[in-house]
Amino acid sequence: MSEKLRPFYDKTVKCPVCSFTYTTTKVRSRFIRVEKIEADFFTKYKDEELNPVFYEVSVCKKCGYAFADTFSNSFSPTIIDSIKSKITNKWKERDFGSERTIQQVIDTYKLAILSGSIKQETSVVLAGISLRLAWLYRIIKIKEQEHRFLKLSLENYKNSYANSDYSGTQMTEMRLFYLIGELSRQIGDRDGAVKFFSKVINHKNRSMESKLVEMAREQWYLIRENDKVI
């Protein structure tokens, strides 16, 4: 009789900084069941332990370098030296390669933000990592930290818009505008939210991403209703 398939599997990773080979846990897609998706794309899963976001970041237990699949593969010798100086030299060996607690997941994302910042990853990549960290704090209901990383994500998405580093990625201009609008709304920047929701609603490609237009309209409506209450 064949062994029952587990929701988790091990992926072998070679660290791009120190060349150490290690395994990290991933969730099999067939076990992932979505319950609902919120306005900023935070996804609640029917089985909270099988959240693929928990396993997006790989951490080398030898040198401490952490990265997601969205990170680039290019490293200059200077950047590797900088990672070793700022992370590895202070690193106490930790293994994030098996099933993770929520606190361990938070730690992996903080390491990814640090690693990505030192490596000078693009703003759009850092924005995505910061947004996921905000979601993690939402799960455990720590509003102050959620707000902190929503603001960091918003700042990076705005930088991405300013320097167009999202071009050539899966991030479309409309989705970027929508995220800037929604994160602005969440942190209380009403005018910024209205400005970018308007950019979505009036975008030249609105017929191609009609769902985003619908979402932008819904969030704009929420703002107007809130204005009436105030």
Automatic annotation (TrEMBL):
<dbReference type="Pfam" id="PF09986">
    <property type="entry name" value="DUF2225"/>
</dbReference>
<dbReference type="InterPro" id="IPR018708">
    <property type="entry name" value="DUF2225"/>
</dbReference>
<protein>
    <recommendedName>
        <fullName>DUF2225 domain-containing protein</fullName>
    </recommendedName>
</protein>
